[in-house]
Design goal:
- Chains A, B: Keywords: Magnesium, Metal-binding, Transferase.
- Chains A, B: InterPro entries: Isoprenoid_synthase_dom_sf, Polyprenyl_synt, Polyprenyl_synt_CS.
- Chains A, B: This is Polyprenyl synthetase family protein.
- Chains A, B: Belongs to the FPP/GGPP synthase family.
- The structure is a homodimer.
- Chain A has 16 helices and 2 strands.
- Chain A is mainly alpha-helical.
- A two-stranded antiparallel sheet of chain A has the order 1-2.
- In chain A, helix 3 (56-67) packs across helix 8 (172-197), helix 4 packs antiparallel against helix 8 (172-197) and helix 12 (250-256) packs across helix 14.
- The longest helix of chain A has 28 residues, at 202-229.
- The two termini of chain A are 35 Å apart.
Chain lengths: 336, 336
């Protein structure tokens, strides 16, 4: 069997068909919301071409199959499942967080209403498990269990994130715990699920998961940096939206926990019930002056290095290891 | 091994421990919402004794294990899973339907807010699959798949139900399809899941599921009848709440599709944007006069009879068949 090249650009095509077949099982009303959210259709249900998202998790899942010396296609149910869980979490998070924009478009709940968006999210979660449990081979059940446990962690992370919004003092460690659950857990699951589906040994699966856990934290750190200093045209999020929503992102929390006048001024701005546009615009420079930006950049680099070390432990084929590192590199250098 | 008696009153105790152990895995914030919703805690998180719900689905799941000649305990992961899926669907449905009361208490979303209630529902769904996938034995994966497919049907049913609210013309057949997905699918899954966990043959699993599908429609018909003519003190729902929310329940749809002056008057009252209290109170008698009540009562009886025939096909032990029929009888005669 010829190995399908699993570079980030080819993945979407490989996964797209399987993803569409899975989502096509939903009832027509729920399908419409899901197709809009996934970028396949406009608000009226007409097809559109623009792909949604980076397909990072499916790419990792297919690579993960190759890490176990299996053809990438054998990781396909895993790739579909992690993308569905990701889509589910974005759909519901947007409702919970009152985020009105997702990937340059109105969030699904603003278009179809909250009830339909809640229901479509539920459907995508259940579908992820359904797809995995249909996969041939013994690894299917273990992979599905990994996705179920990962979803519990995703929820714990979102729950802690919402809790942060009501609190004054947040430590860097608990903020890292939150990101580890909310973001890194699904990336870790993606990095191991293809191998798990192929019945990989525990040590290999563990090493791939550890790689993904560090990669995931790096991903979140870069995401948080982009939220403060990224180009809105590239990120698809309005400028200062993280600041406006008082998001307790890692650089902000690191800055708030630093000593010095900038940290104090920052804390004051975060405690204020109302902030002017000028005050909002002053926040990113204050985070930087308090050392939050440098810390986050260094921590992201450190995590990527540690992630790479897990790949050495895993003794992967050179080509597979190179692709994993390529994705890690993409994550740290991306602009959206 | 001594067979544990699986009468409706003993089930709660048997299932309660396993259910609490599962829900105990959730993060403390999500746990609190779930514990309130399940009736274990009050709004402050203090324990309370009153059990929530009838534990109908867990009772069926344990009986289902006995139908496969397995001890009822082997159906426990299935009993926990179907109760978790049921709890998930009630949590989310209450948000979608704007129902403020559940089992005589304020609905969880009115107490903890929508975001926390959405998240707790997600957690209960994922947990259902997690519990099943940990169950020992080969049947675990097949049972989990059944729950995932059932959840997709649950969602299709709720989606169609929400669609009904926006429409004038609804046929009795599509209303039966809706109930079959929204209500009967999970009851059918409950009736087969214990046997499936034990690795039952396809014909046995199919017969048990067919029993549950007819039982489930009967259950919904009785529920709809109670919604119109039940005692609010027993049902826990305010009087006329189904009528007020324009719920397209089976007796109402049957009445609307009948000929005659009562059906016309009923259609007019359902089309009116505003209705007085007197007009609302006139609806149940109109449904009855148009034949909706008699049709629903007869259809429920017919479904229970058909359900019983599936049990004959399944060739169950006499004691197990008697308990299934006992539950069917309980369902048709209940007052809440």
């Amino acid at each position: 069997m010829t190995a399908v090249p699993v570079s980030m650009t080819d993945v979407r095509e490989l996964v797209d068909g399987a993803l569409r077949a899975a989502v096509g099982r939903l009832d027509p009303r729920t399908y419409r919301v899901a197709a809009y959210h996934l970028g396949w259709a406009d608000e009226e249900g007409h097809p559109r071409d623009a792909p949604a998202g980076k397909a990072l998790r499916p790419a990792l899942a297919l690579l993960s199959a190759r890490a176990a010396l299996a053809p990438p296609e054998s990781g396909l149910p895993g790739a579909v499942a992690v993308e569905l869980v990701h889509a589910f979490s974005l759909l519901h998070d947007d409702i919970m967080d009152r985020d009105r924009t997702r990937r340059h478009r109105p969030a699904a709940w603003t278009v179809f209403g909250e009830p339909s968006a809640i229901l479509a999210g539920d459907a995508l979660l259940a579908l992820a498990l359904e797809v995995l449990l249909e996969a041939p081979g013994q690894g299917s059940s273990r992979a599905a269990r990994s996705v179920a446990v990962t979803t519990r962690r995703l929820i714990a992370g979102q729950s802690l994130d919402m809790d942060f919004e009501t609190r004054r003092q947040i430590g860097v460690d608990e903020c890292l715990t939150m990101s580890s659950d909310k973001t890194a857990a699904l990336i870790a699951c993606s990095c191991s699920i293809g191998a798990v589906l192929d019945g990989a040994s525990e040590p290999l699966a563990d090493a791939l998961e550890a790689f993904g856990a560090d990669l995931g934290i790096a991903f979140q750190l870069v995401d948080d940096l982009l939220g403060l200093w990224g180009d809105p045209a590239a990120t698809g999020k309005p400028a200062l939206s993280d600041v406006r929503s008082r998001k307790m992102s890692l650089p902000v929390v690191a800055a708030l926990n630093a000593d010095g006048p900038e940290a104090k001024r920052l804390a004051k701005l975060y405690a204020q019930p109302e902030r002017t546009e000028d005050e909002l615009a002053a926040i990113p420079p204050l985070v930087e002056a308090a050392g939050g930006r440098a810390w986050a950049e260094l921590e992201a680099e450190r995590r990527i290095q540690r992630a790479a070390e897990h790949l050495v432990t895993a003794r992967l084929p050179d080509a597979v290891r190179a692709e994993f590192l390529h994705i890690a590199d993409f994550i740290t250098r991306r602009d959206h």
